[in-house]
Specification:
By secondary structure, the protein is of the alpha/beta class. 29% of the residues lie in helices and 14% in strands.
């Protein structure tokens, strides 16, 4: 049975070069830091391309940063050659992004779009966001190089940048906007989310709740070990309903574990699961989360 997805995230690595204060990677993530094998990656992509439909893209993401995946360019070249109907999407904090990665991505047209994450720019803002005073400027220089190189290309990549309005912003978003707003194709300012219920101080829960959209219109995460999870908030894979190293995606979506999650959601009982209890993405009113964009 063919499945339709808005997008699919593939966690090609759980290594990350950053220590973001709004991310559970270094404090609450309970799995080894590793990288997805090329064999598993190719198996996943070939099945998706042959049997299923994806309306938007294949998102490289999860608990790691794609810049820490030493197979990133090879994976993008594989997709370009073997699954050209699937659109890859890469987002990076850019602190470890290399010039040769920029040049390969743009010269070889490996990506239709590149998304930058930048949470701090000044030494003080960078320290608040990353616990490293120099990371924001280092990432900004990598973004500068990407934008300059891209501007010279006959086939430029679409560029997107997002940042977060921290509770202690102190003008950081304004400085990031001043440097990049006019130079990228899309710019977004978001309020931080709470990773379901892992960092509850970052976003308040509302009394009125709603059904989980990820269990109505699937947007799964394929984890580095092949586990398939319903959403990216399930960082410790507690809701995994199958494994692509053992079964096909088609078999997994026909399985009882997936249908149990769908049924709980339909009955309004999804928050009986500890991973979902208090998830701020179940707030009924999602307004005010995207603060500004172009």
């Amino acid at each position: 049975m063919s499945q339709h997805f808005r997008w699919i995230a593939i966690e090609t690595t759980t290594h990350c070069n950053s220590q973001c204060t709004v991310c559970p990677h270094d404090t609450l993530f309970r799995h080894p830091f590793t990288t997805m094998s090329g064999e598993l990656f190719e198996k996943c992509l070939l099945e998706i391309a042959e049997l299923h439909t994806v309306s938007e893209h294949i998102r490289f993401g999860g608990m790691g940063d794609p810049s820490c995946d030493n197979q990133l360019l090879e994976r993008l070249r594989f997709m370009q050659k073997e699954t050209p109907n699937l659109q890859p999407h890469v987002a990076s904090n850019m602190a470890s992004w290399k010039k040769r990665d920029t040049e390969a991505v743009i010269q070889e047209q490996l990506l239709p779009a590149m998304r930058f994450s930048l949470l701090g720019l000044t030494p003080e803002g960078s320290m608040r966001a990353y616990q490293r005073s120099e990371q924001g400027e280092r990432a900004s220089r990598a973004i500068d190089y990407f934008l300059q190189y891209n501007a010279q290309s006959p086939h430029p990549v679409r560029t997107e940048l997002y940042t977060l309005l921290m509770p202690d912003d102190q003008g950081e978003v304004a400085q990031i906007k001043a440097r990049f707003w006019d130079r990228v194709d899309a710019f977004e300012v978001w309020r931080p989310h709470s990773w379901s219920n892992l960092l509850p101080h970052l976003r308040a829960n509302q009394v009125v709740r709603r059904r989980c959209s990820k269990l109505i219109h699937p947007e799964p995460v394929i984890c580095v070990n092949g586990d398939v999870c319903p959403c990216s908030m399930d960082v410790n894979r507690e809701l995994a309903f199958g494994n692509l190293a053992e079964h096909s995606l088609q078999e997994i979506y026909q399985g009882s574990a997936w249908h149990r999650l769908v049924e709980l959601n339909a009955q309004g009982l999804i928050e009986t699961l500890p991973t979902c209890h208090g998830c701020t993405f179940l707030n009924a009113d999602g307004s005010g989360v995207l603060i500004e964009h172009k």
